[in-house]
Specification:
The protein has a 13-stranded antiparallel sheet, covered by helices on one side. The chain has a two-stranded antiparallel ribbon with strand order 8-9. With 320 residues, the chain is mainly beta.
């Protein structure tokens, strides 16, 4: 009798436990730490080596830690997610700590509309929003650096994203940002001789020093992006995007300039097997700066071809 009673109690306990497990849904990623709400934590480093015969190059024949980044991400409420990215960057021999990103995402303001608020890598073009260590190449395309700076276009503000209710992917992003101006540090002006065709000095002119700081957008910056993609075959996809940004130059207090940047990007992806993949990516940027003496126009582009031949390795070629 005692054995049967013990068996009944054990069976009843197991049944209650099974019901309790079934009634509790699987928690979302980033909420597995409930009730302590432990976020998802990741650390990634960017390391590179350089071989050179240039004895003046301080990075020749050595391995360098370029960046180490710590990311804390998780849900703070259903359909509300936070992301904080802290990085240690190496500039020359100095290591600089900074908050790369820190923002809250409202994943569903209304149907198909989401919003992000905080410090964010702006969704301009194809790769500006992607951190360097997540890209398939060790350095940044020159046009991104020349138009937006070493760290790309990063601002504090808000972004609205609307996913169009269409049978293919089509998303519209509209953003407003505040980006601080750069301090204007320039070399002292110098005097140069103005000569004729025979080399005789006919006048002396004042040559202003070159600015040591990078160009970028600053002050109140407004951006927009329209991008869509669709399958071209069962194993391939085409993505196209148009982007625009309007603001002032990063040294506008000195140059008194206004700037606009327009971009177009085209990406083709082909999956040969589950892991084999080919990407052909292209991006074109056009810059217009209005300064007191007139309008300056520049453009730049890059093209990138990449082949991933297994789960872990890929190789590619980029032309700027």
């Amino acid at each position: 009798m005692q054995k049967y009673l013990f068996a009944v109690v054990l069976l009843l306990s197991a049944n209650l436990f099974a019901q309790d497990v079934m009634e509790k849904p699987t928690p979302l990623p980033g909420m597995r730490g409930v009730p302590s709400n432990i976020p998802d934590i990741s650390v990634i480093g960017n390391f590179y080596g350089k071989v050179s015969e240039d004895k003046t190059d301080t990075e020749r024949n050595r391995l360098t830690t370029k960046e180490v980044e710590l990311a804390l991400q998780g849900y703070i409420y259903p359909e509300m997610k936070e992301s904080v990215v802290i990085a240690a960057h190496k500039h020359g021999e100095d290591v600089v700590f900074e908050i790369c990103e820190g923002y809250v995402s409202f994943l569903k303001v209304i149907d198909n509309l989401s919003c992000s608020v905080g410090k964010i890598h702006v969704d301009f073009g194809k790769i500006n929003k992607v951190h360097q260590h997540h890209r398939s190449y060790v350095d940044q395309p020159q046009v991104i650096t020349n138009f937006f700076g070493d760290h790309g276009l990063v601002g504090e503000g808000a972004n609205l994203s609307y996913l169009m209710p269409l049978p293919f992917f089509f998303q519209i992003d509209i953003s407003a940002w505040r980006i601080p101006a750069h301090s204007h540090e320039a070399e002292e002006s110098s005097v140069a001789n103005l000569t004729d065709a025979e080399g005789n000095t006919i006048d002396k002119i004042l040559v202003p020093g070159e600015c040591e700081n990078e160009f970028g957008l600053a002050d109140e910056v407004y951006t927009t992006r329209y991008w869509f993609s669709f399958p071209s075959t069962e194993k391939s996809e085409i993505e196209f995007g148009l982007s625009g940004a309007k603001g002032r130059g990063s040294h506008y207090e000195h140059h008194k300039d206004k700037a606009e940047v327009f971009g177009a990007d085209l990406t083709y992806k082909l999956w040969l097997t589950s892991y084999e993949r080919i990407i052909f990516q292209n991006e074109l940027l056009y810059l217009m700066r209005e300064v007191p003496v007139g309008t300056l126009k520049r453009y730049g582009w890059y093209s990138f071809l990449n082949y991933r031949f297994n789960k872990y390795w890929d190789w590619g070629f980029r032309y700027d």
